[in-house]
């Protein structure tokens, strides 16, 4: 039966949309850090539904998986923060996670424990970005302001660019080809605005 379930999961999610934490044998802290980073990346990729395998905890003390509990709490937190749209227990050792659109990051309510990234007040922070990236960021800012019903967005564009950069940049994270990934995320947000 387990082999059949595994084959069905492989067909439905494939390796690109499956995070197998069970095979890594991480601590709870390592598992949540890895899961959050991976889920945010998949949100930026518009992966839709993904599978997160935590394991049941059969070898854990008292048969309770601390990794599963930690990841379950993380998923609930990411749902409140606009990364996850829905969570469903798939098996006793895995979750199916539906990712929210990137625009949900900006719409999520602020919480004390997980503050929203604060945009820098210095527009020079954007000067390090390429002209193409700044143009995309400006377009996203204008669309966001239009969606809020702002009739004359020009006075607010710079601040909105900084706010969008703070939110989307946090989702993209650091690492190689960051600006390329940022442009991809900005295009995703533009597509989401077009579909509204």
Produce the secondary structure layout.
Elements: H1 2-13, E1 18-20, H2 28-44, E2 49-53, H3 66-80, E3 84-91, E4 94-99, H4 104-107, H5 131-147, H6 154-172, H7 178-195
Parallel strand pairs: 1-2
Antiparallel strand pairs: 2-4, 3-4
Helix pairs in contact: 2-3, 5-6, 5-7
Q: What is the CATH architecture annotation of the largest domain?
A: 2-Layer Sandwich
User: Going across the major beta sheet, what is the strand order?
Assistant: 1-2-4-3
CATH-defined topology of the largest domain: Ribosomal Protein S8, Chain: A, domain 1
Number of separate domains = 2
Task: Kindly report the oligomeric state of this protein.
Answer: single chain
The whole-number mean of residue pLDDT values reads: 83
> In whole angstroms, how far apart are the ends?
42 Å
Poorly predicted ranges: none
The total count of helices amounts to 7
């Amino acid at each position: 039966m387990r082999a059949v379930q595994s084959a069905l999961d492989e067909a439905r999610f494939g390796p690109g949309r499956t995070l197998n934490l069970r095979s890594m044998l991480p601590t709870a802290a390592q598992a949540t850090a890895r899961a959050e980073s991976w889920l945010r990346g998949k949100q930026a990729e518009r992966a839709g539904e993904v599978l997160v395998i935590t394991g049941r905890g059969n070898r854990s003390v008292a048969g309770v998986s601390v990794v599963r509990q930690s990841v379950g709490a993380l998923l609930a937190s990411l749902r409140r923060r606009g990364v996850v749209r829905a969570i469903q227990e798939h098996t006793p050792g895995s979750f199916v996670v539906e990712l929210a659109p990137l625009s949900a990051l900006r719409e999520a309510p602020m919480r004390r424990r997980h503050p929203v990234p604060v945009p820098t007040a210095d527009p020079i922070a954007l000067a390090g970005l390429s002209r193409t990236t700044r143009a995309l960021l400006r377009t996203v800012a204008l669309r966001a302001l239009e969606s809020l019903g702002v009739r004359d967005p020009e006075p607010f564009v710079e601040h909105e660019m900084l706010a969008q950069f703070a939110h989307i940049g946090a989702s993209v994270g650091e690492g190689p080809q960051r600006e390329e990934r940022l442009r991809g995320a900005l295009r995703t947000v533009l597509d989401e605005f077009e579909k509204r």
